[in-house]
Structures are given as C-alpha cells and as structure tokens.
C-alpha cells in the first residue's frame, strides 16, 4: 500500500489495483480547428498540462498501474450522437461537420486522436465514449472489474465537463478516486478551481485531489530517491 498527501486527507492505494484514467487528451480539444474551438473556446489553455500528464503517464507505466485513455468520439454516421448534443454546438461547426482536422469529434478522424506526446501504448486500454462520462455506453466498467481495480487516478480535460462527470460516475460505482490537480485543465480556469474544491469538499464527497508532486514524492521515497 502507498499513501500520498492529498486533500481532504491522505489517499492510500494498492498500485496493482489502481488505474490511471486519462480523459480526452485529444487534438479535438487541445489544438485549433477541433471541437473545443468550434464551441468558441481558447484551446491554448489546455495544452499547458501536456508535460505534467506525460510525467504522470511515465510514473504510472513505471509503477505498473493499468493505464486507460478515453476519447470523446462519435460514429461516422452519428448514430451514437443524440440530436440534442449536436444541436447545442456552434451552428456553423457542429459534431460531424468538416473541420481543419477532419470531421469534428468523429472516431478515426485526425482531430479525434490523442495528442502525440501522450500516445497510448499498445498494451493500454483506449475507451471511445459518446458521452461526457467514461462509463456511460462504454466497456470501461467491465474492463476495470475484470482486472480487480479499486482505485482510479484521474487526469485530462476538461475538469468540469468530462473529468468531473467520469469521476462522479466512478464514485457512484464504488471506486476511490484521486484527481491530479495540475494534470487537469479547463477552458474556464475558475471552473477548474471550483471543481477541485467541490470534489474534495464535505470530507471528499467525490474523492481526493493532490498535485502531481505528491505522487512523485511518495514514489521517489518508496524507491529511495529522496
Ligand atoms: N472532454 C470534454 O470535457 N468534452 C467537452 O465537451 N468539454 C468542454 O469543456 N466543452
């Protein structure tokens, strides 16, 4: 067992029963010309966390955690995209419309890929999800249960949309969840901050939060690096 400094208190986990879940670090959200920009957002705010997420991925791989990547994506025929979701995008660049990185938020298009710096390894799980949550209409729950996973460490974008929705879904399914504070970002920084606070409020009503340095420090100590 390993314990790290976190809020609202220490987070203890068994590495062999822990998965890192990296939410939607896709070009569609992080680079100009994709879904994020089509919604009117400044996408440059999200690119800033890529190096920290890369460090977190490296730690998880070194420690032998299960690594899961999610992608928000829809089928080419939009059969898994509720009309209500499509209608609420910007009127001139909706899900499925042509964009600078291919069709917006469509599985297999260049813009739907995870950014190169965080590319999944062949041994890692990649979950395509049509909703904001990682469990809704995906095989994630079954994949985690089959591997005896009990603890989830979350990173990715955006904090208050897909990360928070996924963390709440996980919390309701009984997982102990940690959100890595500097490995998550929002187009609206105040919403990121509010999400961190609401997750850990009321004694950890949704889970724990900690900076990446807490994880790095405890793993360094375990290996005698400090
Ligand atoms: N991945 C994710 O958060 N999808 C979104 O649509 N986020 C927004 O903030 N729009």
UniProtKB/TrEMBL annotation:
Keywords: Hydrolase. Residues 18-206 form the Isochorismatase-like domain. Transmembrane segments: none annotated. GO terms for molecular function: hydrolase activity. The keyword Glycoprotein does not apply. InterPro entries: Isochorismatase-like_dom, Isochorismatase-like_hydrls, Isochorismatase-like_sf. It comes from the Bacteria. The keyword Hydrolase applies. PANTHER family: FAMILY HYDROLASE, PUTATIVE (AFU_ORTHOLOGUE AFUA_2G08700)-RELATED, PEROXYUREIDOACRYLATE/UREIDOACRYLATE AMIDOHYDROLASE-RELATED. This is Cysteine hydrolase. It comes from Caballeronia glathei.
């Amino acid at each position: 067992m390993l314990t790290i400094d976190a809020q609202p208190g220490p987070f203890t986990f068994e590495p062999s029963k822990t998965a890192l879940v990296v939410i939607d670090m896709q070009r569609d959200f992080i680079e100009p010309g994709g879904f994020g920009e089509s919604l009117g957002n400044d996408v440059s705010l999200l690119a800033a966390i890529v190096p920290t997420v890369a460090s977190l991925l490296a730690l998880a791989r070194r420690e032998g955690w299960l690594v899961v990547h999610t992608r928000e994506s829809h089928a080419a025929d939009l059969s898994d995209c509720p009309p209500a979701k499509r209608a609420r995008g910007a009127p001139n660049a909706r899900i499925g419309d042509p964009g600078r990185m291919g069709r917006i938020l469509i599985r297999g298009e260049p813009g739907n890929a995870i950014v190169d710096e965080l590319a999944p390894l062949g041994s890692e799980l990649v979950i395509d999800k049509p909703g904001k949550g990682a469990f809704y209409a995906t095989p994630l729950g079954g994949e985690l249960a089959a591997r005896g996973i009990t603890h989830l460490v979350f990173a990715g974008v955006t904090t208050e949309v897909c990360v928070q929705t996924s963390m709440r879904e996980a919390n309701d399914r009984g997982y102990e969840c940690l959100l890595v504070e500097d490995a998550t970002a929002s187009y609206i920084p105040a919403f990121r901050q509010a999400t961190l606070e609401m997750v850990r409020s009321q004694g950890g009503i949704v889970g724990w939060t900690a900076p990446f340095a807490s994880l790095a420090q405890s793993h360094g100590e375990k290996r005698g690096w400090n």
